[in-house]
Amino acid sequence: MMHLHALNPSARTIRATAHKAMAFAALRAPSSLAVRLTRYNHHIQRARELTAPTTKTAEDILSARLLLIEQAKTSDLLHHHWSAAFGAVAALRDSALIGLEHYRALLARIDATAEARISELEEVCHG
Predict the structure, then answer these.
(1) Is the full-model pTM beyond 0.85?
(2) What letter would DSSP give residue 32?
(3) Is position 65 within any domain?
(4) HSE-up of 120 (CA within 13 Å, CB side)?
(5) What is the superkingdom listed in this entry's lineage (predicted)?
(6) Domain containing 43: what range?
(7) Contact of 15 with 52, CB cutoff 8 Å
């Protein structure tokens, strides 16, 4: 049992206590033994992680900051690629619309030419 030495326990201590309570509740749950054991082990592991001493060395702090920088770079890179892909899709859509307009104009010219040829042939046949 964890003894609280302060009047206001930290959030980590409260969360660890909650995980321990969930672990013991998991043992009493109406589930299979494997499921109960898996849930118990998960919650106990989380409680241990939360109550472990948090002494950070300068190297740990530096590596954490480098990790945050890399995540930010990755996020910016993903945003850049997403924007580029979105722009490419918009350009393709616009070119498809332009191509559709050209196709419609071409069909109209073919129809006009076909109607002119048909009228010429009708004149030749009747004349």
Answers:
(1) no
(2) -
(3) no
(4) 6
(5) Bacteria
(6) 1-54
(7) no
